[in-house]
Amino acid sequence: MDWTERIDSIPFSIQTGDGKTYFPLWKGGEKEKEFNTSSFEFINVYGTLVDRKKPQGGKFPLVFWFQGANNTEQADEFEASCDDSRAWNVVHPFYGAILGQPISIKRDDSSLNVTEITIPFWETIDADYPISNFSVKDNTMDRHRTVLYACSTSFVTNLKVSFTAIPTAANSIQSIAGSMKSIQDNNTYADFQNALNSGLKAIDNLTSDALTAIQSVQNFLDLPSTYIQAIEGRLGSYENVYWNLKNSIKSLKSLADKKYFESIGGSVLACISLVLVTPVVGDYVLISDVENKASRLKLIYDDYLLTLDSLAVSVYNVNNSFTPDATAQSEISSLIIYTIANLQQLAFETKKEYIIYTTKKTNLILLVHRYLGLDEAGVNMDIFRKTNNIKLNELFSIDKGREIRYTK
Question: Tell me, what's the pLDDT at 320?
Fold first, then answer.
């Protein structure tokens, strides 16, 4: 049937997780579909090899309206239904039946008798699939160990280390120590200092036992991934480690220095991946928390690949040829894809974020009472205030039209 027949014969409907069905007004349609892909570059070969696998679920930005004298009551009822975490069944005239989850909910009551709802809606598969014999944490830890081993062996493969490489490695581990010092506490400091001393001592033997030396650096680098601490501090320290390492290579010319960057840079990515799947309470509250961490991992990985490409030297340059290690890069790519995929799954389990605009002048207490509820300890008010960056004069009076975010 053509598009006019579809609109006439297929009503737009949303069945929420609690089983209620809504038939709001709607307009148009938009769909985005991405594929699971990996890309590979080869020195002296123009272009990029793109390996495309199965498609991801579709993404549908839904915009619809509740209209009439009771529009706000309809919107309130719909919001209450959204709190049920089970998947939705959406029937769209253009795209048919879609099983999926809302990622966030934005509500606009500024048009009086019309309430506009905006929802990024992601298509999902059955929650019982895929079946895994390992937890995400355990599986990531196994892949993380594989990457560390691949990176250490890539450093020593086809390389005769000279004494000139020792200062670079020594300066690097001191830089790593500086980046990680701020997250140490009474429970971690002794292990931190012991691992640092072991790494510095092993570097003195870099020319005679390069594998042990590089693995000692990795052991030191890996420490924060084992800490029971908030993700933000650990992730921030690893970000500093990577960017300091990246800045140090501007003057690198030797093969040993380039292989060192490949090995330690890849190890940083492995450690970050493990950190992101070992959260503590409060790390992943909003979907935006998950998306932020995933994007920061991808940013470093993309930069790592570009930097390796800039360090590559033709194989015809016999004295200084450098190409990234295929095994190490394959394992790193696999780990990054696995980590980001599981973070996306974790996003479905976080609280839904709601966005509204105030329809009249109000204050912090009234908003907290309406959307979160007041508690004796004032915890909800503190969360609400920080989430919406309410400071100074807004502590007493909040103007009409102010964007407000809250979670349930």
Answer: 62
Residue 275 has pLDDT above 90, yes or no: yes
Distances (CA, A) of 390 to 49, 168, 289, 319: 49, 47, 19, 61
**274 close to 140: Cβ distance less than 8 angstroms:** yes
Q: At what angle do helices 255-276 and 136-156 cross, to 10 degrees?
A: 180
pLDDT (0 to 100) of residue 233: 95
Residue 286 has pLDDT above 80, yes or no: no
Q: How buried is 214 (Cβ within 10 angstroms: 0-12 exposed, 13-18 middle, 19+ buried)?
A: buried
**What pTM did the predictor assign?**
0.61
Helices (H), 204-286: 210-222, 231-248, 255-276
Would you list the DSSP string of 301-338?
Answer: HHHHHHHHHHH-B-TT-TTT-B---HHHHHHHHHHHHH
d(CA 181, CA 267) in angstroms, rounded, equals 19
Query: pLDDT tens digit string along 77-103?
Result: 999 999 998 899 999 999 999 999 999
Distance CA(260)–CA(145), nearest Å, equals 18
Determine how many CB atoms are found less than 10 A away from the CB of residue 29: 15
Rounded CA separation 194/398 (Å): 53
**In the numeric block, which tokens belong to residue 254?**
């030797």
Residue positions counted in the chain: 408
405: phi then psi, degrees, rounded to nearest 5: -115, 140
155 in Cβ contact with 210 (< 8 Å):
yes
**Residue 284 near residue 290 (C-beta atoms within 8 A):** yes
Helix locations, 51-133, DSSP H: 71-82
311 phi/psi in degrees, rounded to 5: -85, -15
| pLDDT, mean of residues 142-160 | 92
| Cα separation, 202 vs 212, whole angstroms | 7
pLDDT band at 160 (very low <50, low <70, confident <90, very high): confident
Per-residue model confidence as pLDDT tens digits over 316-340: 555 567 889 999 999 999 999 999 9
